[in-house]
Amino acid sequence: MVTATKLTNRQRENLLAANPAWKGGPAPTLAATKQRKARSMAKGDLLGIASDAKTVKGEKLGIRTAIQYFAPSDVSGRNVCQFASDGCRAACLNTAGRGGIDMVQNARIRRTNRFFDERTAYMARLVFEVERHVREAIRDGMIPAVRLNGTSDLPWERLKCERDGITYPSIMDAFPETQFYDYTKIKVSRRNPAANYHLTFSLSESNDADAMDALDAGYNVAVVFDIKSRGGELPATFMGREVINADDSDVRFYDPRGVIVGLKAKGDAKSDTTGFVR
Prior knowledge:
By secondary structure, the protein is α/β, with parallel strands linked by helices. The chain is built from 6 helices and 11 strands. Helix 3 packs across helix 4. Mean pLDDT is 87; it is low at 1-7 and 20-34.
């Protein structure tokens, strides 16, 4: 049972600003209702639905997220994280949870190679799965969201796809009423996301200047903090900006603009020595 959940005014404003297509539709408020369990990932599927500890937290806000995991960096032999730093690679959550299972790792490698080797067929399958995700989320009284770079950093706004016989500049353009979101280390000056594609810049040990550029351009910046050395708490400010707690959920498109998205170091990041963790 999902209890009645009403968004704050700020969350609603940020949601509507991030996705203008929802203006004029029903207010993003959940009525208490029985929910079907999200679809389990089957062999050959590209998207996991509410399949990890982070994205599933969005369900308390009425958001059901479909997420795609590739083999990160150049693990597959193809580089899907062009601007990954040494610290980023060392702290990557690729092996967190079920990601540490060999079967899961092999599936991510196959998925990554399939993306490069069978691009047209891959994009057709991705369109099918997004359509299915949107349909089933709405059926269950949830707002659908999609995160394509679970463990990658590809500029999806540049990758064409076809839907219903029409070729679109990107999958975001093919689904203008669906909210997409990702983290990125690609300079924001090189990005031109659609209105329904929310990007959060990600700080590493070597891109502070790019992070400041992102903040100045109105983007948020995600920062991993060593809270043990900070008295167990996230700092109130960093880089001159307010720090918000981003561990409560993965729903980044609800965040206010121009803030630091604070994440607590987890897993291998706790032993970081590169400067990636602040």
